[in-house]
């Protein structure tokens, strides 16, 4: 997804170096750089939130999660490229004042789609949500009351990596889940720097657990017999943006945060590069290199279905970061999993 040029970039006279050619291709044209990349879909600066929701396959992902699959969507890109806006809509929302319906992000649209499907299934679906952030390599619960404290990350043969003692909250209405999202997002670490007034300083993972109750057969049929219940998940990952400290002017605590963010994104990139190799040539995938890759292990190379939205700026000043994001996304596109 290519965001529009900002007012600052236009005033500064930055050139547009990214152009959508339609048909799932994006072209980067600048001095010494002329490259075309192909993706499942490309959304240019004029694309509405609704267009991104329908065109990215997000609706199908919700339906697969209801069917019991493990589904993940994550937004990736440099700081200030529009990741949080794509997932959550404008940052000015409060519990009393939501954004205009047209500006709502993929998360709110997915919740509405999920609850709509849930109503058509009757009361058979049980929905719950958990919300975590990874800040300076510590996993913290964004929904539990009191100041966020670090939670241990464990591994088990049956579940893989999981967070111990995280809070999971049941919900049945759009209002409840929207409030949980709002409440958790306000507790997330954000800071202002030269490239972004609301830069996310942590990776955030909101997971919706979808459980369908087991149906007991009518009394007149041979007992005991139950249909198995299905358990699916829909996980939204808002990654903190990659950043060059020189560009953002970060120092002190902000610089420590930036180094931790970049280190975990590097570990994620390394896992994706190895997963993109043909199965026969794959070596050990180092998921244990960061908390982020541990929590995303099942989404990346396990039995899940994953949608990656690469967010880029069209500005000539962001050229190297944009090319880096496009190469990263091209590698991710070659990863195949077996859901």
TrEMBL record:
<comment type="similarity">
    <text>Belongs to the TRAFAC class myosin-kinesin ATPase superfamily. Kinesin family.</text>
</comment>
<keyword id="KW-0547">Nucleotide-binding</keyword>
<dbReference type="GO" id="GO:0007018">
    <property type="term" value="P:microtubule-based movement"/>
</dbReference>
<keyword id="KW-0505">Motor protein</keyword>
<dbReference type="GO" id="GO:0008017">
    <property type="term" value="F:microtubule binding"/>
</dbReference>
<keyword id="KW-0067">ATP-binding</keyword>
<dbReference type="GO" id="GO:0051231">
    <property type="term" value="P:spindle elongation"/>
</dbReference>
<dbReference type="Pfam" id="PF00225">
    <property type="entry name" value="Kinesin"/>
</dbReference>
<keyword id="KW-0493">Microtubule</keyword>
<dbReference type="GO" id="GO:0007052">
    <property type="term" value="P:mitotic spindle organization"/>
</dbReference>
<dbReference type="InterPro" id="IPR027417">
    <property type="entry name" value="P-loop_NTPase"/>
</dbReference>
<dbReference type="InterPro" id="IPR019821">
    <property type="entry name" value="Kinesin_motor_CS"/>
</dbReference>
<dbReference type="GO" id="GO:0003777">
    <property type="term" value="F:microtubule motor activity"/>
</dbReference>
<dbReference type="InterPro" id="IPR036961">
    <property type="entry name" value="Kinesin_motor_dom_sf"/>
</dbReference>
<feature type="binding site">
    <location>
        <begin position="77"/>
        <end position="84"/>
    </location>
    <ligand>
        <name>ATP</name>
    </ligand>
</feature>
<keyword id="KW-0206">Cytoskeleton</keyword>
<dbReference type="InterPro" id="IPR001752">
    <property type="entry name" value="Kinesin_motor_dom"/>
</dbReference>
<keyword id="KW-0963">Cytoplasm</keyword>
<dbReference type="GO" id="GO:0005524">
    <property type="term" value="F:ATP binding"/>
</dbReference>
<dbReference type="InterPro" id="IPR027640">
    <property type="entry name" value="Kinesin-like_fam"/>
</dbReference>
<dbReference type="GO" id="GO:0005875">
    <property type="term" value="C:microtubule associated complex"/>
</dbReference>
<protein>
    <recommendedName>
        <fullName>Kinesin-like protein</fullName>
    </recommendedName>
</protein>
<feature type="domain" description="Kinesin motor">
    <location>
        <begin position="1"/>
        <end position="335"/>
    </location>
</feature>
<dbReference type="GO" id="GO:0005874">
    <property type="term" value="C:microtubule"/>
</dbReference>
